[in-house]
Design a protein that fits this description.
Layout lengths: L1 E6 L3 H12 L4 E7 L2 H8 L6 E4 L8 H10 L5 E6 L4 H9 L4 E4 L4 H20 L5 H9 L4 H4 L7 H13 L7 H8 L3 H13 L3 E6 L7 E6 L1
Parallel strand pairs: 1-2, 1-3, 3-4, 4-5
Antiparallel strand pairs: 6-7
Helix pairs in contact: 2-3, 8-10, 9-10
Subcellular location: Cytoplasm
Pfam family, one: HTH_64
Keywords: Activator, Cytoplasm, DNA-binding, Phosphoprotein, Plasmid, Transcription, Transcription regulation, Two-component regulatory system
Length: 223
């Protein structure tokens, strides 16, 4: 049984998350904390395999809590379930070893898929002393959407998520590749490749802006 702790300051959301977790075979909620400070206290007396973690919380927020865990060499796995859509929150969560990041509101099926993927990942890592490329690909790719799994060769899922996240954050606004490149510290050439892919699958649209002089500029907008 995979032992889960939920760290969420909204009691109603925590209750829903608990029902979601316990509806999935092989998972059991062994504790609920209202913030990172409470969670740290609970973890002193309980063995936890997986933490369902929010970002926005009083006292110790989710990112700070995860940092404290890693600074204390606690390797407990974390899945973020949060309303935080900032690129920085996502980027830091991945840097500190979160295994997934779900943005509220989300469908139950996405939550279920995340936990089932985690269970598969855990099984592979516990049963094998040596991991092969096939196993790595299963761990890395099986939780992504069908669109992400069919991403063309040469495009990386993490970079795609960052570009996609920036477009979502600025939904409805026309943006240049230069702006995205500067904001995400990625080369303009790279940004254009990801924007062209997002345009090809219908997530964004391109408009050409003609200035008084010089070449026309491509402007990108999330649909």
């Amino acid at each position: 049984m995979i032992r889960v702790m939920i760290v969420e300051d909204d009691p109603m959301v925590a209750s829903i998350n608990k029902r979601y977790v316990e509806s999935i075979k092989g998972f059991s909620v062994i504790g609920i904390a209202g913030n990172g400070e409470e969670a740290l206290k609970l973890m002193r007396n309980r063995d936890v395999d997986l933490i369902i973690l929010d970002v926005y919380m009083p006292r110790i927020d989710g990112i700070s809590f995860l940092k404290k865990l890693r600074q204390n060499n606690v390797t407990t796995d974390v899945i973020f379930v949060t309303a935080a859509k900032e690129i920085d929150s996502y980027d830091q969560s991945m840097a500190y070893g979160a295994v997934d990041y779900l943005v509220k509101p989300f469908e139950y099926e996405r939550f279920k898929k995340s936990l089932e993927h985690y269970s598969m990942r855990r099984k592979i890592l516990k049963e094998k002393d040596i991991i092969g490329q096939e196993d790595i690909d299963r761990i890395a790719l099986s939780c992504g959407s069908e669109k992400e799994q069919s991403t063309p060769k040469g495009l990386h899922i993490k970079t795609l998520s960052r570009v996609r996240g920036y477009m979502l954050k600025n939904k409805g606004r026309l943006i240049t590749a230069d702006e995205i490149a500067t904001a995400l510290s990625i080369t303009k050439v790279t940004v254009r490749r990801y924007l062209e892919y997002l345009e090809s699958i219908g997530e964004i649209e391109i408009e050409v802006e003609y200035g008084a002089v010089g070449r026309p500029t491509n402007m990108y907008r999330h649909i």
